[in-house]
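Why do we care about 3D structure at all? Because function follows from shape, and shape follows, mostly, from sequence. That is the central idea of this module. The next example makes it concrete: a single protein chain, its amino acid sequence, and then its structure expressed as tokens.
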Amino acid sequence: MQGILHGDGATQRRAVAKAITLLESTRPDHRREADALLNALLPHAGRAFRLGISGVPGVGKSTFIEALGLHLIGLGHRVAVLAVDPSSSVSGGSILGDKTRMERLSTHERAYIRPSPSGGNLGGVAAKTREAMLVCEAAGYDVVIVETVGVGQSETAVAGMTDMFCVLQLPNAGDDLQAIKKGIMELADLVVINKADLDADAATRAQAQITSALRLLGLHGRPDTAHHDEALWHPRVIQLSALSGQGVAEFWRLVSEFRHLQQANGRWQARRQQQAKAWMWERIDSGLREAFAQHPAVQDRLPALTAEVLAGRVVASVAARQLLQAFAIPCVTDTGARAC
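And the structure:
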């Protein structure tokens, strides 16, 4: 903990890396150590700006983050990047190669980059991304960027753990109907048309289509963003070229404007409180699934019921209900003591 709070340079980065590794461990004794560490670090966290970056594979998320990170360091910030890499559904492994796309940023003393496997976690992020953010904040990184895996329209978990959610899009990535589809677009606070230098006309068309779509989504899905109240943030669409650095300064200007408005109208704190509550219930759900799988009565009945479902003799929903009923029965021994 002292290395995280008071270390400098390589010493602190090593302490942060070891702490996140501890958080990601599934061993029960490591989990207890991690919980104690998080509670100790909590008073020192929460002061950073949390920025979520999402987009389809190949949109240039890593290149954009490196350009943004170097720009922020030039402004005096310290930047932490939590990059989530997809885990194979076959082997379970991950390449964890995002740092190779951020060669300059990864070697800068005022930056820290941590690739983590998604581990089958849905939503484009890893299970311990929220906890890793707290460690980085306690270490003094005042901008924490979460880069998701290459996501589709329904993978929006990063929006529920960051202060601002940005979606990167490509020119010629779809028509008006594609831009208006529900999901990731209606949660975006800022949409960036990256690689705009490749086709200026296509980038301009994409900007117009997405701007129109966001207005319509505001009218129906997010009515609070539909009216012209200058005290509220209204989602924007900008063009940018991460490779050349064109538009990066304008992007950060809009981010700063967003932060000022959200803090002034009270939505900043409300959003963080809602995220903390959602995080608690997410961990409860995860803990209940683990407890369910380890329950003796469930383990006893699961093989037979699974075989019945596979053979078509029992409906899956009925088998699930029977297992839940078994899970609800207290585990006691003959002497009355709890056995699980």
